[in-house]
Amino acid sequence: MAALLRGLRAGRALRGLGSVVATPTATTPQCSSLRRGFHCAALRLQDESKSDKPPSSSSTTYHEHYQAHSTEQDTTAASQEDSASDPAAETASGPNTSYQDQSGEQGEEYETEEQLQARILTAALEFVPQHGWSMEAIAAGAETLGLSSASTGMFYNGAGDLVLHFITHCNSQLTEILAEQHKQVQLGQAEPKETADFLRDAIETRLRMYIPYIETWPQAMSILLLPHNIPDSLKHLSTLVDDIWYYAGDRSTDVSGSHHPRSPSSSTHTFLSPLHHHPHNIRPATLQMNWYTKRAALTGIYNTTELVMVQDSSPDFQDTWNFLDNRIQDVVNMATTAKQVQSTGEAVVQGLMGAAVTLKNLTGLNQRR
Amino acid sequence: MQRAAHTALYDWSQIVGPAVIRRCLKCRATLQQSSRAFSVIPPPRDSEEKEMLDRILRVDHAGEYGASRIYAGQMAVLGRTRTGPLIQEMWDQEKKHLEKFNEILAENRIRPTALLPLWNIAGFVLGASTALLGKEGAMACTVAVEESISEHYNSQIRALMEKDPERYTELLKIIKEFRDDEMDHHDTGLEHDAETLPGYWLLKNAIQLGCKAAIYVSQRV
């Protein structure tokens, strides 16, 4: 009986593997069904197979269309057309206990699918210079983790998943760096920077993370422009820009919400500082529209600098950083000009009002009878 | 209950654990930096709660901003008459409310509504045009707007109480306080002959309809 099961399993796996190997990039149509039933229990089984465990049959389940495992795998279960993968099955006794030292995660019952995907994508980043942002890189990454290259079937967005993962990774790295700097400033161990400098350094740090992949970055950018990737890439971009402004704003922990005493209030700074309390005779609309205009400005700076960086051939991308400096300077100048226009406008209005009152006095219209 | 909390926390930590898996929840470690003891809203547990709190605070902020502009419009017309000081007083209270919401939005990194310039103009125009109808007109506008806002705050209080009164105690306290202020303004408006305006019923309902639309839109945009 066990031998029969084995034979069936081997045959099915061989057929599956054959079709997967033949069309590595065309896994998309099958992937939705794959994904539905694809449960991490199955992957754990794969890990288990390394330790030459005897095949266990009853307590685990996986989806019938399961093709993503290699033939060397020796443990299977009777396949079931069961799309409701059952986490309770994993905690059943026996074969589930030995994988814990395989997964590398201490003391956890199982690894979620997202965590596994993240591991594969992180491993795949190494192969990007070689294969570009593509399924081949993901397959190579999966192989370094000891998984079958067919596990790329998990990524139904393919190269888009890889690029988005990389972007998320860079954003969180940047957030950590900014948080660390913020902490240093709070502890008084570092001087707070001027807003313009802060923005420049933040963007430079962030763009430098692309340097190892700069050859293939145009491909990544074009992948991000695909219609189904645009919502995600916009979301990541807006998160990035919001984070940078948040740290540039240095919100203090006091409740009064007063303007933080960080930098001298120069005229340029007041535009660039978020939610600064204007006196109430200035139109309050500028207070809050700042939120949007600042982020829009920074998005523009970031995107254009990224484009410049991609075709920059100067040593250490010096041209790019000069471009960045100039753009930030532009924004600062624009802010200064805007403020000057506003104060000029106010002065003009005051002058006109004064003239009107004078006229009214002269003509006697101002008297109350 | 404790087990449920424990497993919830456990799942949470599994998701949040590896630093690179933040995208699932747009987790921002920065929120924890503001000291909890002083912040008005609790750090949201998940993106659903964050979205709910975002909407509530965004629309409240827009509401106070609009109210402030309405009073500004009224002052522009009636500032030098006998009702000037009364309107000024109500305006000052609205400014205080607005400041408080500014603080909350800043602390919690909530996006203000993109329609603020629209409310700026619309509020001012509404205030000024009703003030042109005279003192009764301005009072009628005040009554209509304050009634809308109080109703709106009440429904928010109900929603928060239904969810979890203990978790949101500070936020509830603030909203209740502001609602009481708005009710005071409403009563003040009534005291000062709002109802004697011809066409009072029509004006009141038109303004309230406008407020409802504004609330609906500000929650989303």
TrEMBL record, chain A:
Q: Name one GO molecular function term.
A: lipid binding
Q: Which residues form the signal peptide?
A: none
> Which residues does the annotated region (Disordered) include?
45-114, 255-277
The domain of life is Eukaryota
Domain COQ9 C-terminal as annotated: residue spans = 230-256, 289-334
Q: Where is the Ubiquinone biosynthesis protein COQ9 HTH domain?
A: 113-143
Q: Where is the composition biased (Polar residues)?
A: 68-82
Name the job this protein performs.
Membrane-associated protein that warps the membrane surface to access and bind aromatic isoprenes with high specificity, including ubiquinone (CoQ) isoprene intermediates and presents them directly to Coq7, therefore facilitating the Coq7-mediated hydroxylase step. Participates in the biosynthesis of coenzyme Q, also named ubiquinone, an essential lipid-soluble electron transporter for aerobic cellular respiration.
Q: Would you identify the family this protein belongs to, as annotated? A: Belongs to the COQ9 family.
Name of the molecule in the record:
Ubiquinone biosynthesis protein
Taxonomy, top ranks, is: Eukaryota, Metazoa, Chordata, Craniata, Vertebrata
Automatic annotation (TrEMBL), chain B:
- Detail which positions bind Fe cation 1: 64, 94, 97, 182
The GO terms this record gives for MF are: 3-demethoxyubiquinol 3-hydroxylase activity; metal ion binding; oxidoreductase activity, acting on paired donors, with incorporation or reduction of molecular oxygen, NAD(P)H as one donor, and incorporation of one atom of oxygen
Annotated metabolic or biological route of this protein: Cofactor biosynthesis; ubiquinone biosynthesis
The positions annotated for binding Fe cation 2 are: 94, 146, 182, 185
The annotation note on the cofactor reads: Binds 2 iron ions per subunit.
* BP GO terms, sorted: determination of adult lifespan; regulation of gene expression; regulation of reactive oxygen species metabolic process; ubiquinone biosynthetic process
Task: Quickly give the catalysed reaction.
Answer: a 5-methoxy-2-methyl-3-(all-trans-polyprenyl)benzene-1,4-diol + AH2 + O2 = a 3-demethylubiquinol + A + H2O
GO CC entries? extrinsic component of mitochondrial inner membrane; nucleus
Membrane topology designation = Peripheral membrane protein
Under the heading InterPro entries, the entry gives: Ferritin-like, Ferritin-like_SF, Ubq_synth_Coq7
Keyword annotations from UniProtKB, A to Z = Iron, Membrane, Metal-binding, Mitochondrion, Mitochondrion inner membrane, Monooxygenase, Oxidoreductase, Ubiquinone biosynthesis
Cofactors named for this entry: Fe cation
What EC number(s) are associated with this protein in UniProt? 1.14.99.60
Main EC class the enzyme belongs to: oxidoreductase
Give the location in the cell: Mitochondrion inner membrane
State the coiled-coil residue ranges. none
Read off the CDD domains from this record: DMQH
Q: Does the keyword Mitochondrion apply?
A: yes
What PANTHER family does this protein map onto?
5-DEMETHOXYUBIQUINONE HYDROXYLASE, MITOCHONDRIAL, COENZYME Q10 BIOSYNTHESIS PROTEIN 7
Q: Which family does it belong to?
A: Belongs to the COQ7 family.
What biological function has been recorded for the protein in this entry?
Catalyzes the hydroxylation of 2-polyprenyl-3-methyl-6-methoxy-1,4-benzoquinol (DMQH2) during ubiquinone biosynthesis. Has also a structural role in the COQ enzyme complex, stabilizing other COQ polypeptides. Involved in lifespan determination in a ubiquinone-independent manner.
Oligomeric and partner information: Component of a multi-subunit COQ enzyme complex, composed of at least COQ3, COQ4, COQ5, COQ6, COQ7 and COQ9. Interacts with ADCK4 and COQ6. Interacts with COQ9.
Annotated protein name in UniProt = 5-demethoxyubiquinone hydroxylase, mitochondrial
Query: Organism, per UniProt?
Result: Lates calcarifer (Barramundi)
